[in-house]
Specification:
Number of helices: 3
Largest sheet: 9 strands, mixed
Low-confidence stretches: 64-70, 194-204
Distance between the termini: 5 Å
Length: 204
């Protein structure tokens, strides 16, 4: 599966990462089998939920997207329009870096459960299986726990804690221009992962 949307790619990568880590956790187990699952890990807080605890990964916020450093065109592809003989479509390929921020919210039944769950999420992100994120091209530049709170959901009192992540990833952008009409035909954004010394487009 390819992700042309960097925001969706980063959010999905964090979700898959945490599910992978908690699939082997003794206390807060995530499983593909709902009957054997103690912890929910979801994209956004669902409207109807009866199971706790839950970890919610919000959609990343990217200011001035795409934020680049030394945005460089390193390849240009031109094709001839067979109908007119003119240059039909040019593809400008460039790369850069985006720095998204997202929040991971932990919901639990008790204050103790909340603190343990939050600590485990921080541990996995800080050390744990962090190589998984790096192999997917997502790096962590900052991480903070922003305090605790409680909220009433339905008739249930839940205890919450927020973890803020500052992330970065490199992307490849392909801009297709229709030269016959002098318009931009389409723009595609692909996250890029560094694996060893090889740069590869992500698809999983």
């Amino acid at each position: 599966m390819e992700y042309l949307n960097t925001v969706d790619y980063i959010q999905t990568t964090i979700i898959q990462f945490l599910r992978y880590c908690f699939s082997a956790d003794d206390m807060f187990k995530w499983s593909n089998d709902k009957n054997n699952r103690y912890l929910e890990i979801k994209r956004e807080f669902p409207l109807n939920l009866t199971s706790y605890p839950i970890v919610v990964i919000t959609s990343p916020t990217i200011s001035e997207y795409p934020r680049t450093y030394g945005n460089e065109v390193f390849e240009t592809i031109r094709e001839i329009n067979p109908m007119t003989g003119n240059i039909g479509v040019s593809c400008y390929i460039s790369s850069g870096i985006v720095e998204p921020d997202l929040t991971i919210k932990c919901w639990a039944n008790t204050t103790k459960e909340r603190e343990i769950l939050t600590d485990k999420v921080l541990w996995y992100l800080r050390k744990g299986q962090r190589a998984y994120l790096e192999n997917q091209g997502v790096g962590i530049s900052g991480m903070s726990k922003t305090g605790t709170n409680f909220e009433i959901y339905g008739h249930k009192l839940l205890y919450t804690s927020d973890i803020n992540l500052n992330l970065f990833t490199q992307y490849e952008m392909r801009e297709y221009t229709n030269w016959d009409e002098m318009t931009i035909a389409s723009v595609e954004v692909h996250p890029i992962a560094y694996i060893g010394n090889t740069i590869t487009l992500n698809g999983f």
